[in-house]
Probable butyrate kinase (Flammeovirga agarivorans), 359 residues
Amino acid sequence: MSHKILVINPGSTSTKVAVYDGENELYTQTLRHSTEELNKFQEEDEQLNFRKQKVIEFLKEKSVALSDLDIVMARGGLSKPIESGVYLVDEDLLHDLKETPRKHASNWAAKIAFDIAQEGNVQACIADPVVVDELSDVARISGHPKFPKVSVFHALNQKAVARSYAKKINKSYDELRLIVVHLGGGISVGAHLLGKVVDVNQALDGSGPFSPERSGSLPVGDVIRAAFSGAYTQEEMISMLVGKGGMTAYLGTNDAKEIEDKAKVGEEEELAVMEALIYQVAKEICSMTVPLENKVDAILITGGMAYGKWLTDKITEKVAHIADVEIFPGEDEMWALALNGNRVLNNETTPKRYGSTEF
């Protein structure tokens, strides 16, 4: 059966939008918003209405009526921690996304989708936001009660890739033990135990391998001493962790392909940094065998950096003794959201209710 799915994914100065027929992309476009355009809006609701109108104009250009849509899927934002799944966009979710102290463009997606869905008289949903939290109780204990481990990772892409792999081998995701590695601007390595990510590094500003822009795990004592030295502001310290850490800090660029190309031909600095990244990723993969009780069906490597064959081959050499390694290059959030919308429309899953919470 044909299903028309609208997918919405806003960024700080753009809104990605696509229309799918089931899992097949019909139209896609990145709607660019200039700083001058956005600076006209004093209130957030005004900017969201502007973005909504741009999406509606896109649909009109493609001759897609709102009444043609079967569901609207939006990228999930930084709401409260929730279990994996598809969630209806309702007043509770919209309230928390508006009130959350953690500001990000993804927080706007649900509101834009909700308004368009109401006009089209269909459901609006989010799926597997970065705050998906399925950690086991033992994984939450960090070493100090004031700093429990928090689950922030590339849940949407990791879950979509895991389900795609399961479908490929004619298995259910809920019966597999997988280690999924997302190699992108941030790097996350998750232990997927029978459908739940029971352990994963905090990929935003916490732990795990360094990446093109993030520092990953650092010597905490040295970080604290630097923070109180008076040499840096809070913003500068945070930028060391996210934005100006990792490859950027060592090499002055976050272009992983450029760095890989130089490493392949033996450029010393680039090779040293890439070998360290490979080492850290492989070590993180090995650590995730513990939550899976040393029974791993497959290791799946995904994300933008997974296009680099030299890189993925080097990682594979270090971890192939654990399980077969499969590569799923790219991070297609739009496709992953469409995949989840299709699961709803095919009655393979039922949207959950978010529920209200205090931050």
